[in-house]
Amino acid sequence: MFDRYEGGDYAILVHVDFPTEVNREDLSELKLLANSSGVETRGVITTSRGSPTPKYFVGSGKAEEIAEQVKALDANIVIFNHALSPTQERNLEAICKCRVLDRTGLILDIFAQRARTHEGKLQVELAQLRHISTRLVRGWTHLERQKGGIGLRGPGETQLETDRRLIRGRIKNILRRLEKVQKQREQGRRARQKAEIPTVSLVGYTNAGKSTLFNQLTEAGVYAADQLFATLDPTLRKLTIEDVGDLILADTVGFIRHLPHDLVAAFKATLQETQEADLLLHVVDVADDQQQSNIDQVTEVLEEIDAGDVPQLIICNKIDQIDGAKPRIDYEDGKPVRVWVSAQEGIGVELILEALTQLLGPQMMDATLKIPPSMGKLRGTLYELNSVTSEDVDENGQLALHVRLSSVDWQRLKKRFDSNLDELIVQKNN
Question: Coiled-coil region(s) at which residues (predicted)?
Answer without folding.
Answer: none
